């Protein structure tokens, strides 16, 4: 992976860490680096060099965002509260469509796999939902 792109993606995730109401994890999912991040941490020593380079580049971007943008966000909230909050709300709403597609695909995959715990639970739960006729 191009490490400059990864640093920029880390920068965006870092912004999510300091913007109120915006999740860095959600941004990582939208940017397509969430799964790889989880795998890199879970299997850190399995492919050590690749994982350390990936997490290092991501971490550099996150730290740069926190160091350089915390003051900007603090200033914006202090002097331009309403426009700044509206920007944050827009970012959350804008990201939710992409997140919805990710979640729908994940749930469909779980539900279509008859052996999954989710499919078994939902199969059982469907019969326990009270209806007006009960």
Walk me through this protein's architecture.
The chain is mainly alpha-helical. Helices cover 80% and strands 0% of the residues. Helix 1 runs antiparallel to helix 2 (24-31). The chain is flat.
Keywords:
single chain; 134 residues; mainly alpha; 6 helices
In short:
The chain has 6 helices and no strands.
Give the CA-CA distance, first to last residue: 56 Å
Give the H and E element order. HHHHHH
Coarse shape: flat
State the helicity in percent bands: over 70%
Total number of helices: 6
Secondary-structure-derived class: mainly alpha
Query: In total, how many beta strands?
Result: 0
Q: What is the beta-strand fraction?
A: under 5%
CA-atom Rg in angstroms: 20 Å
Note poorly predicted spans: none
Q: Tell me the major beta sheet.
A: none
What layout of secondary structure does this protein have?
Layout: H1 3-18, H2 24-31, H3 34-42, H4 48-79, H5 81-112, H6 117-126
């Amino acid at each position: 992976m191009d490490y400059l792109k990864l640093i920029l993606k880390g920068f965006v995730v870092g912004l999510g860490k300091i913007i109120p109401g915006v999740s860095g994890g959600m941004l990582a999912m939208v940017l397509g680096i969430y799964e790889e991040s989880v795998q890199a941490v879970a299997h850190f020593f399995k492919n050590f060099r690749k994982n350390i380079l990936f997490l290092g580049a991501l971490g550099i971007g996150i730290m740069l965002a926190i160091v350089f943008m915390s003051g900007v966000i603090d200033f914006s909230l202090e002097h331009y509260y309403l426009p700044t909050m509206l920007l944050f709300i827009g970012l959350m709403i804008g990201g939710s469509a992409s997140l919805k597609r990710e979640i729908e695909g994940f749930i469909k995959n779980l539900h279509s796999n008859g052996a999954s715990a989710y499919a078994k639970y939902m199969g059982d739960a469907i019969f326990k939902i009270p209806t007006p006729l009960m």
